[in-house]
TrEMBL record:
Pfam families: RasGEF, RasGEF_N. PANTHER family: GUANINE NUCLEOTIDE EXCHANGE FACTOR, RAS-GEF DOMAIN-CONTAINING FAMILY MEMBER 1B. It comes from the Eukaryota. Residues 16-30, 112-129 have a biased composition (Low complexity). GO terms for molecular function: guanyl-nucleotide exchange factor activity. InterPro entries: Ras-like_GEF, Ras-like_Gua-exchang_fac_N, Ras_G-nucl-exch_fac_CS, Ras_GEF_dom_sf, RASGEF_cat_dom, RASGEF_cat_dom_sf. This is RasGEF domain family, member 1Bb. Residues 159-289 form the N-terminal Ras-GEF domain. GO terms for biological process: Ras protein signal transduction. It comes from Seriola dumerili (Greater amberjack). Residues 330-577 form the Ras-GEF domain. Residues 1-41, 90-133, 573-600 are annotated as: Disordered.
């Protein structure tokens, strides 16, 4: 498996992290004297109202409960405890994520009916089970494996008390609560996250609900009702964790239909659990509604941003276009507004989208979904935001007519990038560096000669891709440690370089087999995937502490930017071609863009 986090290098080339709450606000060197001071507002201009802004809708909270359901008091305890939905499911555990305590061999037997025993049964090593981790025909036994102990229990294999592999049927059965058992939170999160690599969430939900109901059947209607009443709170707990951690699964109308059927079934056995199901469904619908509003708002903003800038036939006319310095001349304030956009968009990325980027093509993919949206649309929108910011930086630099003005904008964005680094906003930092390193910007030698590049070189060093981004990974680790011991909301901010995070998860998936030779699921791989995604959930839940500036936010998300061809032509207009190849390129670009304008 290729390494994903080779923490190396030194975190000392740039100023250390500090609390920017005391950041001085000196007179900006970029202020022209005539630029209006941006008005501080709390929403995007024209995109949201105070009451309708989907970004301002609070994240739902889940209620995690104990496994005891023997009395009314225990039932009340089930629904009164609460924690943040996006909280790292590993964090409450005193042990590491892979130390799966409630899944350990101590709970040797499951209460199953005769119809389900054959699919997922666990036995102790002394019972002489006819299943083994690596050979299902060998007797289950415990044995030394390196410095730890490996043991098989039915179709589930453990190493040092941590689940490492199992059959798919056993994993599904292990998710099903019973009267005296509820799966560990880390197991619930891990399996719900990665099970979509092997089966559709709808299929998983159908089987789990079916098993949960069938396990309580004894042939006696009265006894069945009593037993289901006892297990109902745990079933509601499982569905609550599912709907609040992976709400986007329920955009599939089949999932909503299954949830509705279970609500009716619960209503026949336990009124208290039925009310909890009703409340859970209401929270889910509210969350999905907020997601729909958000996606519509982003689509509207993108439509405005898609409008092409003025033609470059008249450089003087293009020079009259508003630039970033006329909107915001303070690098710290612009970095704050970029952080707002980053955290806003991060908050709507579902954890399952990371897995669905490389999951097998769903044969039912064309089935009408709850909102008929793609499964990774929010993740893709966030990646598109990174690209937009890079092109915005390049456009702002290439647009001005005067060399002096271009140099000022370069210096301004260098300072913005430094403030992003200090905040912990690595995604905006990398987008700015990418924009400034684009070919149309990099070739402006006369402009760069007027710029002091010392700070820019330090920032480039921090984001240097060599050694698998070792310098950046060290800086990210420093930001994470600061976040864990934060004394202010600002210190909690960690926004990773998102494309690299996706790449790490992708190569973790590609570098490890999902199934072992005996057909078992490689659960060690699933633990690692869940570990990386759960860290993202911690970063995602941070609320941006900075004041919103409507004018700046509107400019950043809607101002039209140049395409790659338009950037090259703007660069040639700013500083003429230096050789015949560039002359030919400019001539070709002019002809091509003129042809496009005539066609449009």
């Amino acid at each position: 498996m290729p390494p994903t986090t080779p923490y190396a290098g030194k975190f000392g080339s740039c100023a250390p992290y500090s609390n920017n709450n005391n950041h001085p606000q000196p007179h900006s060197p970029y202020r022209s004297g005539t630029a209006p001071k941006p008005a501080k507002e709390n929403v995007y201009n024209g995109a949201y109202s105070v009451a309708e802004n989907p970004y301002d809708i609070p994240q739902p909270h889940s209620s995690y409960r104990s496994s005891s359901v023997s009395s009314v008091t225990a039932k009340e305890h089930h629904y009164t405890g609460s924690c943040v939905v996006s909280e790292n499911p590993y964090s409450p555990q005193p042990c590491s994520p892979r130390q799966h305590s409630t899944s350990c061999p101590g709970r040797a037997y499951r209460h199953t009916t005769s119809t389900s025993t054959s699919t997922a049964t666990t036995t102790t090593s002394s019972s002489g089970s006819e299943h083994s981790c690596r050979n299902n025909t060998a007797a289950a036994k415990a044995r030394l494996y390196g410095h730890g102990i490996t043991a098989s229990y039915g179709e589930m294999c453990y190493h040092d008390n941590s689940l490492v592999s199992a059959s798919l049927e056993a994993l599904i059965q292990h998710l099903v609560p019973t009267v005296d058992y509820y799966p560990d939170r880390s197991y619930v999160f891990t399996f719900l996250l990665s099970s979509r690599l092997f089966l559709h969430p709808y299929e998983l939900m159908t089987r789990v609900c079916h098993l949960c109901v069938e396990q309580q059947r004894s042939g006696d209607a009265l006894l069945d009702k009593i037993r289901f009443r006892e297990v109902a709170p745990k079933l509601v707990q499982l569905l609550t964790e599912w709907t609040e951690t992976f709400p986007y699964d329920f955009r599939d109308e089949r999932m909503m239909r299954c949830l509705k059927d279970m609500t009716h079934h619960v209503a026949r056995g336990d009124e208290y659990s039925w009310r909890a199901m009703q409340q859970m469904t209401q929270r889910l619908i509210k969350r999905l509604s907020a997601l729909g509003q958000y996606e519509e708002a982003v689509a509207a903003l993108n439509a405005v941003a898609a409008e092409r800038p003025a033609s470059l036939k008249s450089k003087q006319a293009s020079g009259q276009r508003s630039d970033v310095l006329s909107v915001c001349d303070d690098p710290f304030v612009l970095a704050q507004q970029l952080t707002h956009i980053e955290l806003d968009r991060l908050s709507f990325i579902g954890p399952e989208e990371f897995i669905q980027t490389f999951a097998m093509k769903d044969p039912l993919e064309n089935h009408k979904g709850f909102f008929r949206k793609r499964k990774t649309s929010n993740l893709e929108a966030y990646v598109n935001w990174f690209n937009r910011l890079s092109y915005l930086v390049a456009t702002e630099i290439c647009m001005p007519v005067k060399k002096k003005h271009r140099a000022r904008i370069i210096e301004f964005f260098i300072d913005v990038a430094q403030e992003c680094f200090n905040i912990g906003n690595f995604n905006s930092l990398m987008a700015i560096i990418t924009g400034m390193n684009m070919s149309p910007v990099a070739r402006l030698k006369k402009t760069w000669s007027k710029v002091n590049t010392d700070k820019f070189e330090i920032l480039e060093h921090q984001m240097d891709p060599s050694s698998n981004f070792s310098n950046y990974r060290t800086a990210l680790r420093g930001a994470t440690q600061r976040s864990e011991t934060a004394h202010s909301s600002q210190e909690k901010i960690v926004i990773p370089f998102f494309s690299l995070l996706i790449k790490d998860i992708y190569f973790l998936n590609e570098g490890c087999a999902s199934r072992l030779a005996n057909g078992h699921i490689n659960f060690e791989k699933l633990w690692e995937l869940a570990k990386q995604v759960s860290e993202f959930l911690v970063w995602r839940q941070v609320i941006c502490p900075f004041d919103r500036d409507r004018r700046i936010l509107q400019y950043l998300v809607t101002t039209p930017v140049f395409s790659e061809d338009e950037l090259h032509l703007a660069s040639y207009e700013s500083e003429g071609p230096e050789n015949n190849m560039e002359k030919d390129s400019r001539r070709s670009l002019r002809s091509s863009l003129l042809h496009r304008e005539n066609r449009s």
